[in-house]
Amino acid sequence: MSFAQGGKIAIKGTVKDTFGVTLPGVTVVIKGTSLGTQTATDGTFSISAPADATLVFSYLGFDSREIAIANKGDISVVMTSNNKALDDVVVVGYGTQKKENLTGSIAVVNVKDADKRTTFDVARELQGQVAGVEVNGSGVPGEGVTIHIHGVSSLTNNNPLYVIDGVPTMTPFDFPTGDIETIQIIKDASASAIYGFRAGAGVILITTKKGKNGPLKISYNAYFGEQKNPKELSVTDRLGYQKIADAAETNAGISLAPGNDPTSSSYISNVNTNWQKAAFKTGYTQNHDLGFSGGNESAAYSVNFGYYNQTGTVVAGPYYKRYNMSANLQGKKGIFSYGAKMAYTEAYYRNLAYPRLHGTGNEIVDLITAIPTMPVYDASRLGGYGGVDQNTQRAISLNMIGVNNLITNESQHDRFLGSAWANVEIIKNLNYHIAVSYDRTDYRNFYFEPTYDLGWFYPSVNAYYSDARGEPFTSLIEQTLSYKINAGKHHVEVLAGTAYQKDSNNTILGEATNLQQPYLYAFDNVSNTTEKTVFGNSGVRYLYSPIFGRMNYDYDGRYLLTANYRRDGSSQLTPQYRYGNFYGISAGWNIAKEHFIQLPEQISLLKLRAGYGILGNIEALSYYPYQTVVNSNASYVFGNTLANGTTQTQVFSQDNQWEKKATKNIGIDANLFNDRLTFTAEYYNDKITGILLAVPIPLSVGATNVPVVNAATFTNQGIDLSVAYHSKPQGGFHYDISANASTLKNKVLSLGNGNNPIYGAYSKTAVGGEVGELYGYVSQGIFQNAADLKNHATQIGATVGDEKFKDINGDGQITDADQTYLGSAIPKFYFGFNFSATYKAFDASFFIQGNTGSKIADGVYQALMTGQYTNASTDELNFWTPTNTNTNVPRPVIGDPNGNNRNSDRFVQSGSYARLQTAQLGYTIPSSILNRTHALKSFRIYLSGQNLFTITKYKGFDPDYINDGTINRGFDYGSFPNPRTLLVGVQVGL
Questions:
Q1: How many whole angstroms separate alpha carbon 45 and alpha carbon 30?
Q2: Which three-class secondary structure state does DSSP give residue 403?
Q3: CA-CA distances (angstroms) from residue 288 to 304, 309, 343, 350?
Q4: Do residues 588 and 103 lie in contact, with contact meaning Cβ atoms separated by under 8 Å?
Q5: Ranges assigned E (strand) in 428-460
Q6: What is the Cα–Cα distance from 146 to 134, expressed in whole angstroms?
Q7: At CB < 8 A and 24+ separation, what contacts does 939-943 make?
Q8: What is the pLDDT of residue 85?
Q9: Fewer beta carbons under 10 A from the terminal one: N or C of the chain?
Q10: Closest by alpha carbon to 249, among 864, 799, 869, 798?
Q11: How far is CA 625 from CA 223, 573, 735, 931, in A?
Q12: What is the mean predicted confidence (pLDDT) over 481-500?
């Protein structure tokens, strides 16, 4: 196109919404050309155009505007939100839907708030952001989290389904959070049934950043910061440790260990190691994202490169490093539209190490309980690190600093995720859509343990090497046909589809022992074939979805109906039970649009909704669960003759079926004061039946496995609340407030096999209770004298100074039957609170998250209160003696004959906490200054802090801890503490 007469002029201006809030990223194009620019972070723009040209302003979620320049050099543009606004359109299964027309339980995550959390993991970003979603994790770099949507849905696998740009995955590992555009969470079956059995634990829908029409846009975001452990446990020094150990030996009637006996020539007085100070260090984290985007309607692109590195906070301990690249391409030409995505990540992990022959320990517990009379370094020992001596100290104590330096435990993940789709509008409103995807991870786990001497009980006399590799992948093809009907006030959308999925996993493991120096990590260097082994395994499962579909009906925006259905089949089940039918239906009534009800004009939305549906789950089963295994060499002697025989060694139930989850929910949504105040309240009640559970069988069967069967049933119910307020800008000041809260009550209805309870670490799961309820003895203080002992129930091994336990059943003796429930690991109340504000070029925000009413069995504190040869909490120094009777700490005694340290309420503590998770302060350089650079369109710098302050009574490192999430959910046995992070970051637009 040739420009109109009159020459070019320089135009500058500002783009705002109807509230006066400036809009960054608005595309400004000279009409009839591809020439244009985008607004900066403060909403300003500048462009050179003909004096009689027209500028077109477009922005996702707002009506486009055309402004004639008419020789004007300054332009102020106000854009109006439309019904397709990003905040008003929600991604649902295989499509989108207006938020005001939603009838299911779907939460929209404020990605802008979530992104302020410095983390490598998308699930961790969700902590405290959405009602009904519980997230717990540790501070180990690269380690995943436990995430529950409306409680546990299985006793084995509670991971939700992640759908990234339409590609489903159960493992969103190594996925860069900076690539995310939107996140929606489906919490009920009425909305997620279209995903069938994979949605049994909920669905998290993620869309990544895509290219937008306009010229090339370059963005660079980066931060760098330091991390430290925010808390140090109070443990004894050398003198305190020796005092407790000496008292324990004296009470046991044995001589003092020479290393702790001041009268011995072997007495240790020159070593006083503070293991926390020696092991914990300052870690560093950094992230860099570089993005390119642009294009036009027929081909818009987005290419992103990223680098993330977290060094961890333990000397020679874990770290996580990731490189990633992703590309999106989409476009439309006539009736044809298409899209493609490719993402690749290469991640490196250094994992916490532990001696392979003692693999049941815990790194944090061993570090905290390491005795102060053991040195960190000892040149006289093989490997150069300190250890203990059996005769001198009598302690079994592990030098974790030495372990992490001597042992190599590393992993590498290379992951490729690719997808492509095409859509054809066959006739008006009738669309055919096909999508194919491939998700593959190639991993390597490398472990090497040289010979070393870390003292009594921890020598390594044979070097060991293992190398495990695998290549799990998923391939998927889906086809859908959709049609929209608009007839007056009636609006109908129907979708039908079919899908086929193949999951495969091939693994190989090689092990070698007795490697000789110089160490070469190759199996060919081990000549003795008996000292090396190789194992291989492969598995394939097929998932069939011959039909799935959805129907949305809307009458005049007032009466709403949604129905979802999916029929799924899996090769993990026998042909008789292979297929399951999953469905959901929900309805809504938009009262604010009702003609016969006159609501105040301040109420723009008031909607009642309710839903019911059935979901499934099959993840507890292996790929070939119904294949029996026999031993054809099971010979037996008959009449002094060895007869050949065969026996079945592995048994599986041929009647296994889908776990079924029925969800019911009812909610209300309201928008007030021109949508500045929004509110959602919802009640849910879920019942999960046929839960797959390992049930013991008689040994006489001959099987070596415990078969998994449909055996358990339990319910989850609670309330989700969310509220948000967006202020009206005044004098350049604007703020946003959002808060959410939720409750959860779990109840076990059946457990199969005679309803026998399931015991875990500090827990008992039984019918009538909840999953993973804390369980143990009740302490009643200390036996003060012989009369106290005589008048109490018989307690074997007890003497004066020992812990007194309650006779729960009143039978006159303390036995296992006197254990009882000690509290719930499930909080009564989860909450999250976000606040953000802007004043001209400055912005500030903070985020508070926590829970109330939960209990934690503090296994670390329990390990520090044993009164044995390990190091102790300073609380242990207040142990009972005949002259120190006003205490709740029993006497230390080697062997602990009374079981003072048994699981009891002594170690159950409040898990309630409120944490200032993030706080951020930023400054955006005005465009008037940036324009002088002729290069920068936007530039923001910020300071941020994470895990800054926690209010809690918990004595452990962190009330936010990692665990198995189900049976042992209330037990903290050395979860790696979450670090405190301080960082500086920049966001640059070119």
A1: 13
A2: helix
A3: 10, 9, 16, 21
A4: yes
A5: 430-449, 452-453, 459-460
A6: 8
A7: 939/986, 939/987, 939/988, 939/989, 940/41, 940/986, 940/987, 940/988, 941/984, 941/985, 941/986, 941/987, 942/843, 942/984, 942/985, 942/986, 942/987, 943/982, 943/983, 943/984, 943/985
A8: 39
A9: N
A10: 869
A11: 47, 7, 55, 65
A12: 93
> What is the Cα–Cα distance from 115 to 982, expressed in whole angstroms?
15
Comparing C-alpha atoms, which of 930, 983, 924 is closest to residue 222?
983
Q: Is 82 exposed, middle or buried (0-12, 13-18, 19+ CB in 10 A)?
A: middle
Q: Report CA-CA distances (Å) from 780 to 713, 784, 808, 889, 908.
A: 36, 12, 11, 11, 14
Structure letter (DSSP) for residue 877: G
Instruction: Tell me the pLDDT band of 419, cut-offs 50, 70 and 90.
Output: very high
Q: What is the percent of the chain where pLDDT is above 90?
A: 61
Give dist(CA 906, CA 901) in Å, integer. Answer: 9
Q: Give me the DSSP letters along 218-262.
A: EEEEEEEEEEE-S----B--HHHHHHHHHHHHHHHT-PPPGGG-T
The sign of the CA dihedral 590, 593, 596, 599 is: positive
CA distances 6 to 29, 36, 53, 101, 224, Å, are 19, 19, 10, 49, 50
Q: Are 326 and 341 in contact (CB under 8 A)?
A: yes
Enclosing H/E stretch for 805: strand 803-805
Q: Over the stretch 51-101, which tens digit does the pLDDT of each residue have? A: 888 888 888 667 788 888 887 778 888 887 654 434 477 888 888 888 888
Nearest alpha-carbon partner for 824 in 694, 912, 950: 912
Q: Are 877 and 242 in contact (CB under 8 A)?
A: no
Cα gap 851→647, rounded to integer Å: 53
Residue 817 main-chain phi, psi, to 5 deg: -70, -10
| Structure tokens that stand for 280 in this block | 């914990």
Bridge-based pairing state of the strands 820-823 and 464-470? unpaired
C-alpha dist (Å) from residue 327 to 205, 230, 322, 789, 970? 19, 39, 17, 74, 42
Q: What pLDDT shows up at residue 451?
A: 95
In one-letter notation, the amino acid at residue 47 is: I
- Evaluate whether 889 touches 904 at the Cβ level (below 8 Å): no
DSSP letter assigned to residue 892: P
Angstrom distance (rounded) from CA 546 to CA 728: 51
Condensed to tens digits (0 to 9), the pLDDT of residues 940-970 reads 999 999 999 999 999 999 999 988 888 899 9
Between 196 and 846, the higher pLDDT residue: 846
Average pLDDT, the chain: 89
Token pair for 718: 């609670």
Characterise 974 by phi-psi region: left (phi > 0), alpha (psi -120 to 50), beta (else): left
Q: What's the first-to-final CA gap in the chain, in angstroms?
A: 26
Say if residues 624 and 208 touch (Cβ distance below 8 Å).
no
Question: What percent of the chain clears pLDDT 70, i.e. is strictly above it?
Answer: 94
- Tell me how far CA of residue 498 lies from CA of 95, 102, 321, 341, 435, in angstroms: 15, 24, 39, 21, 11
Q: Band of the pLDDT at 542, cuts 50, 70, 90?
A: confident
Phi, psi of 236 (to 5 degrees): -75, 150
Q: Which residue has the tokens 């985007």?
A: 293
HSE value, Cβ hemisphere, 13 Å, CA-based, for 336: 4
Say if CB 327 and CB 377 are below 8 A apart: no
Q: Does residue 671 surpass a pLDDT of 90?
A: yes
Distance CA 648, CA 646 (A): 7
3-state secondary structure of 499: strand
Q: What whole-number distance in Å separates Cα of residue 526 and Cα of residue 467? A: 14
DSSP-assigned states of every residue in 635-699: -EEETTEEE---EEEE---TT---EEEEEEEEEEEEEETTTTEEEEEEEEEEEEEEEEEE----G
pLDDT tens digits, 843-872: 999 999 999 999 999 999 999 999 999 999
Rounded Cα distance, 841 and 159, in Å: 41
